[in-house]
Amino acid sequence: MSGNDGDNGRRRVVITGTGALSALGRTTQDLWNGLIANRPGIRTVDRLVASGITVTTGGEVDAVPHDQIDRDHEIANRAIDDALASAKRAAANCGFIWSTGLDTFQANSHGFVHRSAGRCFSALAARFLEPKRMIAAACASGTQAVGEAFRLIRSGRIDACVAGGSSVMLTPFYLIGFAGLQAVATDNDANGDHPSRVCRPFDRRRKGFALADGAGALVMETLDSARTRGTSPLAEVIGFGMSQDAFDLNRPSEDGAGAELCMRRALADARLAPHDIDAVNAHATATYLGDLAEAAALRRLFGGDWKRVPVSGVKGAIGHAMAAAGALEAIVAAHTCQTGIVPPTVNLSEPDEGCELDHVIAEPRDANAERVLSVSFGMGGQNAALILQRVSA
Amino acid sequence: MVYLIASAERRDLGAIQRSSPETWRRVRRYNLPIQLALAAAEEVMTASSDPKCTAVISLAPCQPGSADLYRWGHVVTSGMASGTLGDLRMNPTQTLHAVDNLAMSAFAIAYGNQAECLGLGGAAGQAWCGLEAVLEKLDAADRDDSSGTEEVILMAGDQDTTDESTAGIGVALLLSKHARAFVPLGRVVRLVRIERRAQPNPTNVHPHAAAGLCEFIATIKKQNDGLLSYDVPTEQTDGSSSVNVVVEVMS
Questions:
Q1: Chain A, 251-310: which have a CB under 8 Å from a chain B CB?
Q2: Which helix (H) or strand (E) element contains residue B58?
Q3: If you write DSSP's letter for every residue of B78-115 in order, what string do you get?
Q4: Structure confidence by residue, pLDDT tens digits, A56-65
Q5: Subunit contact A379:B99, Cβ cutoff 8 A
Q6: Which of A67, A195, A212, A238 is the most exposed place for a label (fewest CB within 10 A)?
Q7: Which of A73, A120, A320, A337 is catalytic?
Q8: Are the C-beta atoms of residues A341 and A388 closer than 8 Å to each other?
Q9: Helix, strand, coil share (%) of chain A residues, nearest 5
Q10: DSSP, res A393
Q11: Taking Cα atoms as reference points, which of B169, B160, B155, B157 lies closest to residue B67?
Q12: What ipTM describes this predicted complex?
């Protein structure tokens, strides 16, 4: 184990490699470039049109054919391999904290295909060291995976870890289910708009999210280890918090109290105050109640300071990749820490009443942001928050 | 120090309906694994010193659905190619399964619990990761943790298959950093450590979130004073490492 490299005996934890498969492309750079260009990756998906359901748009990942029988495994593995390669690390020296989300239900040339999320995790985990933890916390899973890895490394339990999540849910099975919950925007909700504009976080015309496939992987290790290896970290993870709403299975409390609690826990964990945060990577699903609750929670967290903190979300561009969402968003937050640039919230043009925040609209903002709060608020009221910061010299 | 305070195991939904109508009313909307996990949790929480502040570690089932859900999955996927899905609507009960760790959310709502939590997924051997996480959380509370965690509940529910007539098990363990007698044994049980050793040859496993913890607790209940070195049966691990749990029973 490496020695302490932080204050108060805490080990400092950094991100040294990332991999991302999303509707914006097959690499982390594709994701970041697309966001900075304010480009939506959501589009009409032919196989959904053919099935005759009322939701035909989503965040499709092109890197792996949609009828490939082990698509769940392959999407995850590609992101993991990219992250390991960019960190110049081997799986055999890393723990593995990952979420594979829900079981996969597909129909292809083999007929009905049901793939267990648990078995997918076990197959992915085989080449890693202990601990191997499968995270299941609904839409907060990816963030919780990164947070759990952070705690395990900081405490000295492990030196390095691959963390993140993957999801293959852009199928009629899940689209019909989420449509029943009025959580996804249907074709009727587009109101003649281009399909790529169907998901509008915080906007007055928002009608729900676009479901997406994806994977986000982060290699995390101690700062000491990264420096010894001569690797330049992308960002440092400095705080993590979890909470539950304890309110309702299908909707958040309107005041966002559970969301606020996990953000305050992350701040306490990082030994920071709200005014230390330079930008927020929001959950921003574009659901009516979810966005209202999140905006209320952020305004209360920052108090009179809320107009100073730029807020941005990625789901307007890539859709909601569920178990992968928080990991993909942590990768974006890390890029913001590194560059200081906050990407715009794609498809947001007119913030709704009740969603007032310092939104980044239409073009990126060079905010010289060094510390970013990245949050996920899952169905069932499972919440998670991370704080990342630029790595000091 | 980490102590086992209480445990409960539930296998019979009929018994819950007959003997605890209030519990049944609270859990009836869920599927079998969640019903059994919540019923077991309800029993151990009677021993909790502060149910609202007990940290929660919840294991999602390895067989997460229901017979109805999987039948519905067949209907949807077979209708995809023919374009006949139209305005098909999912039963709202099934949509609850979009929450992969439903027991964790349902528990939080039932107890108004907003404490620290960890949701683990339905892969083979995750129960022992849950037990390791209990040790980490309660040890961290002694060292470098702002959460003030004093107690942790570890809960799980699972079923053998997703067939109509399947059997299920729910289990819950309450653990604390303060020594108290383990309720069914009347003696103090300290969780000392969990050790893993890599298996050179991966073994076959039987993924089940709850079965392994039940066997572990049954062994503790038969233990005399002294150290117990419990080797987790291979089929209840993740297949890539052996797991040994050491507990100490004290009068």
A1: 258, 261, 265, 268-269
A2: strand B55-59
A3: HHHTTT--TT----HHHHGGGSTTHHHHHHHHHHT--S
A4: 999 999 999 9
A5: yes
A6: A67
A7: A320
A8: no
A9: 35, 25, 40
A10: -
A11: B160
A12: 0.96
